[in-house]
Amino acid sequence: MIRALRTLRNEPGFALTAVFTLALGIACSSAMFSVFYAVLLAPVPFADAQRVVAIHTKSTTTGRSTPRLSGGDWSDLAASSGIFESLARYHGGVVGVQLRNRAEWAGSYWVSPNFFQVFDAVPVRGRSFTEADRERSVVVSDRFARRVFGDAASAVVQVVQIDTRAYEVVGVMPGDFAVPEKAEIWVADPPQPQNHSRTAYNYSSVGRLAPGLTAEAAQVRLAALGAQLANQYPENRNKTFAAIPLRDTLARNEQSTLFLLMAAVLLVLLISCTNVAHLLLARAAGRTREYAIRTALGAGGARIALQVLAESLTIGLAGGIAGIALAYAGVRATVWLAPASLPRIEGAAVNWKVLLFAIAISVAASLLFGFVPAFEAMRKNVQEGLKAASGRGVVGGSKARLRHVLVCCEIALSFTLAVAAGLLARSMVELNATPLGFRPEGIVVAYAHSPANTMEKMRAATRFFDQALLELGQIPGVISTGAAMGLPAGRYGSNGKYAVEGQDFKRDRDSLQEAGFRLASQGYFTTLGIPLVAGRAFTERDQFDAPFVAVISASLARRSFAGQDPLGRQIMCGFDSNRWMTIVGVVGDVRSGGRGEAPGPELYMPFQQHPKMANELQLVVRTAGSTQAMAGAVARKVRALNPEIAIQTTLLETMVSDSVAMPRFRAFLVTTFAGVALLLAMAGVYGVMAYLVSQRTGELGLRMALGCAPAGVVRLVLTRALGMAAAGVAIGVALSLAGARLMTTLLFGVHPGDAVGYGAAVLAILGVTLAAALAPAWRAARIDPAVALRGE
User: Fold this and answer.
1) Which of 469, 612, 517, 617 is nearest to 96 (CA)?
2) Distance between CA atoms of residues 348 and 42, nearest Å
3) Rounded distance, CA 400 to CA 783, Å?
4) Which of 134, 353, 685, 750 is deepest in the core (most CB within 10 A)?
5) Are the beta carbons of 70 and 80 closer than 8 angstroms?
6) Is the peptide bond before 245 cis (omega within 30 degrees of 0)?
7) What is the pTM of this model?
8) How many other C-beta atoms can be found within 10 angstroms of the C-beta atom of residue 606?
């Protein structure tokens, strides 16, 4: 190893190039592996995690899973024997919490008393729940305790208020416990769910499997229980249950993105290794005379091969160390770029597992790119080596072909990454160009929660919001105001089945269509720029005591009233009551889930007529001036009207942008990796062509002496380079088409075989190849025939 270091020290240019090339690949792969491990592979922080599962409802007809249970199904599962040691449920989200001197938002979940037993989790202060704590106690996270009460010890016996109900803090959970994600408050719920309907899937559920029971055996028993309930209850005839390891559910929606990014970065690593292999082969060709002389002096082929492998290993380890150093910055940058919705991303770090991964890659890469030069050194013939070392002229043979093959492989892999980057970039362009059905620019959004737990207080909350909208409309610069529950691209919403006149909501339930349910105020559609297609929008007349009315979207009108006038027709939904509503208007379709989600049927209702769901609304304010300044003015105005209101402001444009944060994240990273790959491919092409020109100096000089013009020499070199590029592109096209199906679910409005994406990748490869080959071609054109022939 010391001799290897001495040898490489004498060739600093080669050594630094090889180390940096490898470090680049290892840095990218180590940084991405850090994220991949933190999100998908890192153990969850509770005992016997393999026994903790999430219970989903699964349709036996469509195979579609819903990550929740109905209240009736949960009770039956909890009562079953032999499947679960403990089964718990939870529901909730980010809600307003009233403290002693302020109100704020916090992730709050109502959980059954045995919730913490499922995870075998023990509070760091206080205790967990008993059945006596129902609807009177909470457990808080260590983070919440420190932020609100100073420390965990001070939090116990303190009081927090949610929806006018006071709860005593009885325990503080450790900082690494966060189930569900970002939970800060757990509220004690009764042992049995309040809603026993078998058609309303309101409860998430987690369970600890019985001792000795595998997940596969549990699934068999759940299927049997599902079949039993299907025979017992008509509502259950098309459903069963699925037990999924909890860790597998944490990033279920992001797995395809992470696997794509990991595959992309491994391609970059492979290109790096290929590049270093090419450098070593070129270097080995230049050391033919050295190997021959050492062999003639008695050095065995095995000894020379070991020396070559030692040099390769030195380069690999140096590249690994440099790559790890770069990976620290890469991880920080990736975490900063990652969307907030990516679970457990904050745990990404260069830990010992990542270091082990990087070292393993370094050693494997060293052996990979050092094997061929070492093998060549072992089989070197002394006389042929001395003869080849003293000769000049045309370069050929297996080693030259191998170097060309390696560069073709680099180009093929780079092309594959460039295609993926082009498709994802095109997909982002399509996403950003997609009409939303509303105008997000210039709109301030204020999430507002008014504490209420009785009908009287809920109706008082709706009156407060009516007054707040009037007051907000008086702020200078405000154009219009509105309010909704279920704002497009927002964090709240509801959906379910609906019936139109002529249908029975209970009897025909299986044949009913589904729609999104939204609450809205007068002025809401105008403020968001949602066009009114027919009829009218909501007005001040649509109060709680007035006849119930609804506005439907154009797609719902087409689905349920095709060829008919929907105005004046009756509609009912299971949102909060079974009262029939008269359709008074039709509005345009909107992308409620953000740019990436297609518009669907929507049913809008006046929030004043549905107070049970209206104490938490999103206020929207369209302004002619600065949205940032208006956001502060809105928050101050609402707090001045009622300090108990939890208020949180943002911009609708930000919400829409965040809705495509994951596609933007993967497009950016894949494009970055493709850029690195193209640079490495450029280096590979340059190395081959520069070596080719240096070895063919005599031949090129002879050509020029015989009348070949400099332009012809340039054309000769460029043609050779473009030939390698064409071969690489052909292989790359085959690889890209083979992996096209993997991209399908990640694209929006773009086909995996999109000609524009492939064309852009071809142009990128040609541009990189020509740029890399121009310098050697220019050098070849400036060869002096007399000097070249004298050298021969």
Assistant:
1) 617
2) 9
3) 22
4) 685
5) no
6) no
7) 0.82
8) 28
Task: Report how far residue 209's alpha carbon sits from residue 82's, in angstroms, rounded to the nearest whole number.
Answer: 9
pLDDT in tens, 690-710: 766 666 665 666 666 666 777
The answer to whether 503 touches 571, Cβ cutoff 8 Å, is no
Question: For the CA atoms of 172, 178, 184, 190, what is the dihedral angle to 10 degrees?
Answer: -80
Tokens representing 642 are: 């009622």
Pairing of strands 165-173, 137-141: parallel
**Is residue 689 a contact partner of residue 699, using CB atoms and an 8 Å limit?**
no
Cβ contacts of 297 within 8 Å, gap of 6 or more: none
Whose CA is closest to 341, among 506, 548, 489?
489
Q: Which amino acid is at 560?
A: S
CA torsion through residues 402, 403, 405, 409, sign: positive
CA distance 254 to 663: 10
Strand 602-606 vs strand 159-162: parallel, antiparallel, or unpaired? unpaired
pLDDT tens for 165-217 read 999 999 999 988 888 888 999 999 999 998 888 888 889 999 999 998 888 89
Residue 122 CB partners (closer than 8 Å, separation 6+) = 116, 128
pLDDT per position as a tens digit, 67-103? 999 999 999 999 988 899 999 999 999 999 998 888 9
Torsion of CA 600, 604, 607, 612, to 10 degrees: -60
Cβ atoms of residues 780 and 437 within 8 Å: no
Q: How many helices (H) and strands (E) does the chain have?
A: 25, 22
What residues does 790 pair with on adjacent strands? none
Longest dimension (CA), the chain: 106
Classify 644 as helix, strand or coil.
coil
pLDDT for the residue numbered 78: 92
